[in-house]
Amino acid sequence: MKQAPFIAVEGPIGAGKTTLASMLAEELSLPVIKEIVEENPFIDKFYQNMDDWSFQLEMFFLCNRYKQLKDTVTEYIDRGKPVISDYHIYKNLIFSDRTLQGNERGKYRQIYHVLTDDLPKPNIIIYIRAELDTLLKRIAKRGRSFEEGIDHSYLQQLIEDYDAAMASLAEQEPSTPIITIDGNAVDFVENKEQFEAISSRIKELM
């Protein structure tokens, strides 16, 4: 049986994932799954000292995203109901490969695959790509205290990591469409026509 539409919105920190996912959920009358960020008890410590707190941070995110997606399967996917999420579970590998080293990275990858390999994957991906200046402006605008001192080189590396990850996903799952949005030029919040173009494209794929 064909899986119901499972849409994931992805992109680096500050790209506008949650905003776009929420707007599309309202436009398409879909339930929206939002990742837990500010509730992570290790996030402040992580931005102060990435080396000491990266494993705890990544494990918290992984376990919470796993629980959310497991519930999503039960509530929506198994019942043939479409749903939209403001993340793809694959992002755990994007971030952990950047922050973890050696044995910790290996252990994390093992746990990731044990938890996620049998979960349904999104069958429509929206990738918001944006340059560093754009991300920094959006991060400043939303005003999260723990992001105030974010390392610019870390954020730039994430941009490159996301490009590589989307290319990898395209190879792994060639039947899954990846819609790339130029976050530097497209303002789906202020420009109604640009948002409607995105939502129309999603409707065509559902």
Describe the secondary structure blueprint for this structure.
Layout: E1 6-10, H1 17-28, E2 32-33, H2 43-48, H3 50-75, E3 83-85, H4 91-99, H5 102-116, E4 124-129, H6 132-142, H7 152-172, E5 178-182, H8 192-205
Parallel strand pairs: 1-3, 1-4, 2-3, 4-5
Helix pairs in contact: 3-4, 3-5, 4-5, 4-7
Family: Belongs to the DCK/DGK family.
Protein name: AAA family ATPase
Domain Deoxynucleoside kinase: 7-205
Q: Characteristics of this structure?
A:
alpha/beta, globular, 206 residues, single chain, Rossmann fold
Q: What does this entry look like structurally?
A:
- There is one protein chain.
- Strands 2-3-1-4-5 form a 5-stranded parallel sheet, with helices on both faces.
- The chain has one domain (6-205): P-loop containing nucleotide triphosphate hydrolases (Rossmann fold, 3-Layer(aba) Sandwich), CATH 3.40.50.300.
- The model has no long low-confidence stretch (mean pLDDT 90).
- With 206 residues, the protein is an alpha/beta fold.
- The chain has helices spanning 17-28, 43-48, 50-75, 91-99, 102-116, 132-142, 152-172, 192-205, and strands spanning 6-10, 32-33, 83-85, 124-129, 178-182.
- The chain has 8 helices and 5 strands, in the order E-H-E-H-H-E-H-H-E-H-H-E-H.
- The longest helix is centred in the N-terminal third of the chain and has 26 residues, at 50-75.
